[in-house]
């Protein structure tokens, strides 16, 4: 199934000049990875601190775009500028999980969202990323299959935050969106596991 992740190559092309400039300035992929995680924690903390205020909600979509750029940049620095490392691989996977948790768990405190469903979404998101990583362990490639990958989650949470930040009244749309995300995350986990297994010979 299609995912926003599929447009990543075009986004990377736009960021390639900036990536080259950062490389020339001595910035490393690992530094960008750590920065993205730290900024995610800071953004999520603002939302948890004032979950009923509009300004943290408006900060979230703006930062999610920045985070997407940072994630693309650290990948290009690693691949295109000989900065791949075992530490970088660990930081990248753990950093993404930490960032997702820090950014999305505070939505449980935002009016209109069901706390239990938000917690379930965060848990399923972690499982989906773990499923993608486990694919490597069985001899397949790292799986990024959708329909509810990292970029898709960022888009939906960012859109929800933007709507609420602009004054849209909490209500039925949130009650529809949360179960839909849960269902799509379950499908994502299934897709990643199925395609990983399809890449490897049967035992």
Structure report:
One of its GO terms (molecular function) is phosphotransferase activity, for other substituted phosphate groups. One of its GO terms (cellular component) is membrane. Keywords: Membrane, Transmembrane, Transmembrane helix. This protein has 203 residues and is an all-alpha fold. It has one domain (4-198): Four Helix Bundle (Hemerythrin (Met), subunit A). Helices cover 74% and strands 0% of the residues. The chain has seven helices and no strands. It has helices spanning 8-24, 29-49, 54-80, 86-104, 115-137, 150-165, 172-198. Helix 2 runs antiparallel to helix 3 (54-80), helix 4 (86-104) runs antiparallel to helix 5 and helix 5 (115-137) packs parallel to helix 7. The longest helix is centred in the first third of the chain and has 27 residues, at 54-80. It is globular, with a radius of gyration of 17 Å. The two termini are 27 Å apart. The relative contact order is 0.15.
Topology at a glance:
Layout: H1 8-24, H2 29-49, H3 54-80, H4 86-104, H5 115-137, H6 150-165, H7 172-198
Helix pairs in contact: 1-3, 2-3, 2-4, 3-6, 4-5, 5-7
């Amino acid at each position: 199934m299609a995912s926003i992740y599929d447009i990543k190559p075009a986004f990377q092309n736009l960021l390639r000049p900036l990536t080259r400039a950062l490389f020339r300035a001595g910035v490393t992929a690992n530094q960008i990875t750590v920065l993205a995680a730290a900024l995610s924690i800071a953004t999520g903390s603002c939302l948890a601190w004032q979950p009923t205020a509009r300004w943290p909600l408006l900060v979230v979509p703006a930062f999610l775009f920045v985070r997407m750029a940072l994630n693309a940049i650290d990948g290009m620095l690693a691949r295109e500028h000989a900065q791949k490392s075992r530490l970088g691989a660990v930081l990248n996977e753990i950093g993404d999980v930490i960032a997702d948790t820090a950014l999305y768990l505070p939505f449980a405190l935002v009016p209109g969202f069901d706390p239990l469903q938000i917690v379930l979404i965060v848990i399923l998101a972690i499982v989906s990323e773990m499923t993608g990583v486990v694919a490597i362990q069985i001899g397949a490639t790292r799986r990024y299959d959708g329909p509810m990958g990292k970029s898709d989650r960022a888009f939906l949470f960012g859109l929800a935050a933007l709507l609420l930040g602009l004054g849209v009244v909490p209500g039925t749309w949130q009650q529809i969106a949360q179960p839909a995300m849960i269902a799509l995350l379950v499908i994502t986990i299934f897709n990643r596991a199925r395609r990983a297994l399809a890449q490897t010979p049967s035992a």
